[in-house]
Amino acid sequence: MKLINVAVACLNQTPLAWDENFAHIQTAIDNARSQGVTLLCLPEMAITGYGCEDAFFTDGLHRQAFAQLDQIAALTAGMVVAIGLPVYHERALYSAAALLVDGAIVGFVGKQFLAGDGIHYEPRWFKEWPRGEVDVLERTRDDGSIARYPIGDLVFDVGDVRIGFEICEDAWVANRPGTELALRGVDVICNPSASHFAFGKFAVRQRFIVEGSRAFAVAYLYANLLGNEAGRVVFDGGGLIASGGALAARGRRLSLREVEVSAAVVDVDANRRDQSRRGSHRPRHDAEDLVIEVPFVWPALKPVAHDVAVPSWEDGPSLKEEEFARAVALGLWDYLRKSRSQGYVVSISGGADSAACAVLVALAIRFALAEIGVGGVEQRMRAAPRLLEALHAGGDVQACVRAILSCAYQATENSGPVTRNAAEQVANAVGSEFFAFDVDPLFKGYVGVLEQALGRRMDWKTDDVTLQNVQARVRSPSIWMLANLRGAVLLTTSNRSECAVGYATMDGDTSGGLAPLSGIDKPYLRAWLRWMEKTGPEGMGPYAALSYINAQQPTAELRPAAVNNIAQTDEADLMPYEFLEAIEDAAIRDKYLPVEVLLELTPRYPQYRPAQMAVWIERFFRLWCRNQWKRERFAPGFHLDDRNLDPRSWCRFPILSGGFERELAQLRAYVAGLGEA
Q1: Measured between alpha carbons, how far is 311 from 329 in angstroms, rounded to an integer?
Q2: pLDDT tens for residues 601-630?
Q3: Cα separation of 502 and 629, whole Å?
Q4: H-helix or E-strand containing 234?
Q5: Quick one: which of 319, 306, 324, 130 has its CA closest to 210?
Q6: Which of 75, 220, 509, 635 is the most buried (most CB within 10 A)?
Q7: What CA–CA distance (Å, rounded) separates 677 from 673?
Q8: Are 595 and 670 in contact (CB under 8 A)?
Q9: Domains of the chain in sequence order
């Protein structure tokens, strides 16, 4: 019986943060060694960080990465460690995994399939390594001597245990390298990954890892990045070890720790026996030139029973709500500490979006205090003196939130007591600092300046949009001032539904440096706030004060009710939010044209006449096309699923276009043919 103690480490790395990244790698190796681990897999691009963007083309980055690889190798005495880094070879750059054995670099494997869709731009920087090819990588040492290493589609026979690689995307494709590796007699597949968070994605990831271990009859080690690495993308960690079709270890997801190590003992001989019994197994005997022999003695072990604990929040009925809370809170926590800012500021309107932003900032602090404690928060937030003062005073949760979060309600003559009270109730409930600014004199001052220049009075019947927009814009300077005074990041509160149709005022409510809600739609956000009011994340509890938000209809509160004799609401200005999201999914995600959208949605919404739906569909398409320039200017947000509209990381559309004029004419003609025009 050949047993080996293996581990995966999920790391919270930062692009180009050499010292910090190295410290996390060293911590992972030390942690694994303390658990008796012999084989450790670390994530993709763990040395440099995954999100280096065009800095990957910098010669100095490659040299520094290789220099650090030498230092990491020196830490691996008595161990086998796999780690990802960029490798420059023959005037091409590759995403590669290095294998380190007992203090030495023994070779490199190149990634065969690059992620080039959605948030990924890997083909911009890297080349795919050709299947079946090997070469020699040369590096000049400091003393002028030449070091040579094998590189390519390699298998490493380390002390009679064969180790192969699938690097992140390699495992997501139909013709994944694992099939060939199994035929080459691999015992362990290491997968150094940088797989971003998306709702429901972890279940898919776990399935193909467990199934890969069964289909290939191997031990499968999956190590992922963790945290908000570079600003937009949140990695959820969740290291996995599977063997022979069974899950052996599962790491925590969305953790606020920098290093998460998960270990298990796997039975190599059991997997070999399983493979030998399969009639479909046809081992290859012509690939021995792709195998690198490495002497190594594996320590003798006894069998260990695996107890794969699943956090109860991942196994409950509110998984998406928990994931949203924890992913955005993790994103906010890392953005704050990595930007070395002193806190967050929210222009709190008494509506759903700004309330959600305030709650999520509070959750970030509460999760941090619960998971890493006062000492851990203090160590990571040395750039936030107000928070340090609160921590030194005892680390009271409300005091810590107040030290990090400032909220301001900014009223004009069209603001009402309901939203004013709701804003204050939520701010007090989460523990934030709260201000109430009267910006109506500023609003009237701007109107007076323009009226004097125009030589006429401005009025709501002729100047509606202008008067609404200036109210939103007069709130920007004061909230920016508060952010500057606090050394804080101003949060943009717009959600994805507003981004889709441009229902936001540029340089007004879109002001800010980070938009944590830009990846989530309004209907879901409202449902999440109701969940937060009644339940909340496991261990955190609810915020009952959100009842003041949830009792209202969403409103911009920028127009007097007397104009149309009804109170202004978002849905009256646009359309029902649920229907807006359905149009967005069909038109933007599924790429349907206007008539196709109507045909798709008609059976799903029998309560609406086709003529009314056609009006909303046309409104959506026109607003979508007209407002691409706004989406280009929105502050960076977090990627949460494959419905993101961020043109810099997911959904691209021209700023200038024909606006679907012919297609919308076809929609009108179709409805006319129904006799409903």
Answers
A1: 18
A2: 999 999 999 999 999 999 999 999 999 999
A3: 9
A4: strand 234-236
A5: 306
A6: 220
A7: 8
A8: yes
A9: 3-310 (3.60.110.10), 326-573 (3.40.50.620), 575-677 (no CATH)
